[in-house]
Here is the input.
Amino acid sequence: MEMHQLRYFVAAAEFRSFSRAARACSVAQPSLSQQIRKLEDTLGVRLFDRLGHGAELTEAGRALLPRARRILAEAHEAEERLRAGFDDERGTLAIGAIPTIAPYVLPGVLERLRKERPACEVSVREDVTARLLESVANHELDVALVSVPAEHPLVELEVIGKERLLVAMSRADAPADRTSVSLEALRDAPVVVRHEMHCLSGQVEGFCASRGVSPRIVCRGAQLQTLLSLVALGMGVSMVPEMCAAADTGSSRVYLPLSKGAPERAIALAWRRGRSRSSAARRAAELSREVVAARGGA
Here is the structure.
């Protein structure tokens, strides 16, 4: 039994497909199939039922899967600890976050982490959800901060807080009491949103669709700050996370909750399923929970 055979076996079990597993492992499908067959020969049992549309674990395969994951996780942990010289204050951390979380959470996390572990080598990636999840699955990131719903077969999500989505509008267009705004009052208003590839756009449009509202979108932008600049000019309204509103020190915009059924988003840590978590990654997660909670995340 060899380590790469176990990796191929776990990938095929999680994807339920030899072809998808081969792509995930960056190996040709015939090679992956051959190695899994050798593993079956070594163990003397069949691990998969090969079906026309994919592969399903046999009873023996289901019994082996948690043990194989544990073996791989322990091997990876041993490798990381050897590289770090068994010093929890050294080592590396690769952390990612989506653009609507990164500027509001990561600075507080990284400031404290660098004070506590000055010898730890930290790298940061800001990207859209799909690419962050893929990087976590491929062991390129130790942990990532994303907003759910999000899904990847090799990634588990741990919700660490929730926050409201608020309506951003120019101060000149805000209602007189500036306490809330109704969705009906915004029905005909021009709307500026993030590009479709960003999860916030999907969350906002999904909420509107659930309320029977088709927003009149006049701009799709990649940067949240661009949208807020357009809001300040009175070119449209937008919907942004509460932590973004709290960080805005300008006077040209106001942020109001919807008067009924204000939408929320959940903030989650993304981990590679079955992978051991380094001391630095665990500490970064603890600090993320604290920063999100301090910013009002429920």
Remarks:
- The mean pLDDT is 86.
